[in-house]
Amino acid sequence: MMKKVQNLLKKQKGVTLIELLAVIIILGIIALIAVPAIAGIISDSKADSIKSSAINYINAAEMYEVTEGIDSDGVTLEELRDEDYVDDNEGVAWSDGAKVILDSGEYKIDGSGQIDRVQVVLGNATIKDINDVANNVTVNDDVEPTS
């Protein structure tokens, strides 16, 4: 009797429909958990890239005003790009009129940057504000992409 059962088991090839269904359900559960987590990581990295770009603009504005000997209240991001103080290959689309201002001895950036559907709005934010994600830094992760 035992030999007959063993022979039957040896002849069995492939998987049953139930086994296949169980594997598909398990893979579906894993996907449901992993996809939102990965999307959040991608969104966070885009926001961090925009913040990094903003800090670069603040540092470039400080360097621009010191090296050029300009005594002003601020400089536009476009002017910093035109004067080659910032490389514009960062992939961030900045709002028109975005600028770095000098307020009470501190450089602050005012404007919004966007990568795909992620936008960071900076309202007179210092480097410390950007790093701390203060009240004047807002991250929107589902806006219409810029063209």
UniProtKB/TrEMBL annotation:
Intracellular or extracellular location(s): Cell surface
Gene Ontology CC terms, in alphabetical order: cell surface; type II protein secretion system complex
Record field: transmembrane: 20-42
One Pfam family, short name: N_methyl
Keywords in alphabetical order: Competence, Membrane, Methylation, Transmembrane, Transmembrane helix
Keyword Transmembrane helix: yes
Record-given protein name: Type IV pilus assembly protein PilA
Provenance organism: Aquisalibacillus elongatus
Organism taxonomic ancestry: Bacteria, Bacillati, Bacillota, Bacilli, Bacillales
